[in-house]
Amino acid sequence: MVLFTEICMQQILYKMNNESFMEPSKKLKFNSVMVIDDIEEDRVIAETHLKRIARIKKLYLESCARKALRILKGIKYFEDMPEIILLDIEMPGFSGYKFVEEFDKLPGNLTSLSRIIIISAFIRYEHESLKIFRQYPFVSSRSEERRVGKECR
What we know:
A 5-stranded parallel sheet has the order 2-1-3-4-5. Helices cover about 40% and strands about 20% of the residues. By secondary structure, it is an alpha/beta fold. Strand 1 (about 30-35), helix 2 and strand 2 (about 55-60) form a beta-alpha-beta unit.
């Protein structure tokens, strides 16, 4: 499953960079990427995949969507805004759904700099939650039973 996730993530990142699938020796380049996931193991897996396929100057690894949103609101320079945000959608408390809702309220000059990719092993198939999957690319993070991290403040 890990290799499949890495290949899916690689294809999405290449497509977002308007490049075709490239040989493994050529890495993508990003100034900044943010990973938001309540499970530490999943953040480590995403970090490993990203480092394997891309050169990243600044990598934010956040366990709390609310804290990640505060970081984004505090960014002063456009070049510090993450080009890619890998977002776990199902988190306790301030979920990825809520993050997207609040992210979309940020000024357009900031939100236009970032592309969100949804990463999750568990998805609610409710009418309202399905809208997000038409708006953003999705990568399945694993097939095993979902563990839930602590709610953040």
